[in-house]
From TrEMBL:
Belongs to the HMBS family. Its EC number is 2.5.1.61. InterPro entries: HemC (IPR000860), Porphobilin_deaminase_cofac_BS (IPR022419), Porphobilin_deaminase_N (IPR022417), Porphobilinogen_deaminase_C (IPR022418), Porphobilinogen_deaminase_C_sf (IPR036803). This is Porphobilinogen deaminase, chloroplastic. The lineage of its organism: Eukaryota, Viridiplantae, Streptophyta, Embryophyta, Tracheophyta. It comes from Glycine max. One of its GO terms (cellular component) is chloroplast. Keywords: Chlorophyll biosynthesis, Chloroplast, Plastid, Porphyrin biosynthesis, Transferase.
Length: 350
């Protein structure tokens, strides 16, 4: 298993805050400028306010500035922070407060109402349906899809003593952990941004946690990683590591801007995975994992998984076919239909 940190026991986590502070300050200035400047921005980016969400918004802004001269002018692009339901309610598991759309609903409303021009999302937060009057034509190049294991006392999940508590807000992670390591305990309401989760870990609330490696890379925080789980050990969430950018369906100018940023290989992979998820009608109450990638022959390899939350029952399948949109959509749907049939009635309502 690949390891990014040589030491197994850390005296403390080296959490970088300067970059986040800078993002927060820049974002605050951007919002302030929107209300105080007479000059109207050419493009307003809507985003959540977490350090990771801001990092993704600034990545989008920088790519737009590099691709379009008019957007490189000072004040041409502004960042608008929008607080979502998922950000407001942190005391309950995601499954108990609605699941789908918790981190996108308010941003989508701002887009439809014309308060922003484009919306930047983590694709794994985006429901399989899109609101009317919006399209999502752009995915940025995908980051590493794997999950990172972080602990102060163990090198991997296998090294954790029986009874150790692993913190996660993901039923997908919980079910796969318990399937392989039934002697471990999982705290499933381990919510908050990356910094909050690392603080809880350092305070001893849990003995380990899993976080998306993509987010840690975008935050320049990989020094906190103890080890990285392979795809075989932990199949990722649908669309993990992918950034999606939406605009209004009647806004040709924004669609043109986004077309210049789209990474087609990522878009096709995400489309395949989301077709699988849509067929399963998955929610935060159902542990579902799916990953589409290009294999050494240039074809699409799709792997899908559904599980019971306790990890006792795990069903997996895979497909190989041409790396082309229609074929990949068909693979995702077909894999979903197979697992629905194998799971049987009642499996997804537990």
């Amino acid at each position: 298993m690949e390891t990014l940190c040589s030491a197994l026991v850390f005296p403390s986590f080296r959490i970088r805050t300067s970059a986040f502070s800078k993002c927060g300050i820049r974002a605050s200035i951007a919002v302030e400028q929107q209300t105080s400047q007479t000059k109207v921005a050419l493009l307003r980016i809507g985003t959540r306010g977490s350090p990771l969400a801001l990092a993704q918004a600034y990545e989008t802004r920088d790519k737009l500035m590099a691709s379009h001269a008019e957007l490189a002018e000072e004040g041409a692009i502004q960042i608008v922070i929008i607080k979502t339901t998922g950000d407001k309610i942190l005391s309950q598991p995601l499954a108990d407060i609605g699941g789908k759309g918790l981190f996108t609903k308010e941003i989508d409303e701002a887009l439809i109402n014309g308060d922003i021009d484009i919306a930047v999302h983590s694709m794994k937060d985006v429901p399989t349906y899109l609101p009317d009057k919006t399209i999502l034509p752009c995915n940025l190049p995908r980051e590493d899809v794997r999950d990172a294991f972080i602990s102060l006392s163990a090198a991997s999940l296998a090294d954790l003593p029986s009874g150790s508590i692993v913190g996660t807000a993901s039923l997908r992670r919980k079910s796969q952990i318990l399937h392989r390591y039934p002697s471990l305990n999982v705290e499933e309401n381990f919510r908050g941004n990356v910094q909050t989760r690392l603080r809880k870990l350092s305070e001893g609330i849990v003995q380990a946690t899993l976080l998306a490696l993509a987010g840690l890379k975008r935050l320049n925080m990989t020094e906190n990683v103890t080890s990285i789980l392979s795809i075989d050990d932990m199949l990722p969430a649908v669309a993990q590591g992918a950034i999606g950018i939406a605009c209004r369906s009647n806004d040709d100018k924004m669609a043109e801007y986004l077309a210049s940023l789209n990474h087609e290989e990522t878009r096709l992979a995400v489309s395949c995975e989301r077709a699988f998820l849509e067929k399963l009608e998955g929610s935060c109450r159902t542990p579902i994992a799916g990953y589409a990638s290009r294999n050494e022959d240039g074809n699409c390899l799709f792997r899908g998984l559904v599980a019971s939350p306790d990890g006792i029952r795990v069903l997996e399948t895979s497909r190989i076919g041409p790396y082309a949109f229609e074929d990949m959509i068909k693979m995702g749907k077909d894999a979903g239909e197979e697992l629905l049939s194998r799971a049987g009635p009642g499996f997804f309502s537990r």
